[in-house]
């Protein structure tokens, strides 16, 4: 299974576990969208860029306050919220939810998903050679 397919499988599992989510997105820490599953017409590239910026600001705040490595942050509005999770050192999991979402369930499921996405993104490079893949799990 390719990395892209594996990430989409993980996002589908998260969506199945918390069906009321409006969308989920994996972005690089540079703000580029890697994979997503959205319910609505949402500008994925804009969300990816904002998620990277928000996580970057959160990391600076955590460092300045001596709070250790930032793991997650969220923004809550009157009609929805977004949860941002570090997915290893190179990616971010953004979870977009309606206002009255079970936050405990979102955290439980999304923290596990972010923990699984990090190694997929940061795993060994896979190269295609005649007869199959080498350098990683197929």
List the helices and strands and how they pair.
Layout: H1 3-17, E1 23-28, E2 33-38, H2 44-64, E3 72-76, E4 80-87, E5 91-98, H3 103-122, E6 127-129, E7 132-134
Antiparallel strand pairs: 1-2, 1-5, 3-4, 4-5, 6-7
Explain this structure to me?
By secondary structure, the chain is α+β, with helices and mostly antiparallel strands. It has three helices and seven strands, in the order H-E-E-H-E-E-E-H-E-E. Helix 1 runs antiparallel to helix 3 (103-122). The protein is globular and about 35 Å long.
Q: What oligomeric state do the depicted chains represent?
A: single chain
Strand content: 25-35%
Number of helices in the DSSP assignment: 3
Low-confidence stretches: 127-138
Helical content stands at 40-55%
Mean model confidence by pLDDT: 89
Distance between the termini: 5 Å
Q: Tally of extended strands?
A: 7
Q: Going across the major beta sheet, what is the strand order? A: 2-1-5-4-3
Q: Report the principal-axis shape.
A: globular
H and E string:
HEEHEEEHEE
Write a compact overview of the structure shown:
With 138 residues, the chain is of the alpha+beta class. The protein has three helices and seven strands; from the N terminus they run αββαβββαββ.
């Amino acid at each position: 299974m390719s990395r892209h397919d594996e990430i989409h499988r993980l996002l589908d599992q998260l969506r199945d576990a918390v069906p009321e989510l409006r969308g989920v997105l994996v972005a690089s820490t540079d703000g580029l969208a890697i994979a997503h599953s959205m319910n609505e017409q949402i500008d994925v590239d804009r969300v990816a860029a904002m998620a990277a910026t928000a996580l970057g600001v959160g990391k600076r705040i955590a460092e300045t306050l001596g709070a250790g490595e930032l793991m997650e942050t969220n923004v809550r509005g009157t009609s929805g919220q977004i949860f941002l999770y570090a997915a290893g050192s190179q990616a971010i999991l953004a979870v977009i939810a309606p206002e009255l979402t079970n936050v405990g369930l979102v955290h439980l499921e999304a923290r596990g998903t972010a923990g699984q996405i990090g190694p997929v993104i940061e795993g060994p490079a896979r190269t295609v050679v005649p007869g199959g893949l080498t350098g990683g799990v197929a």
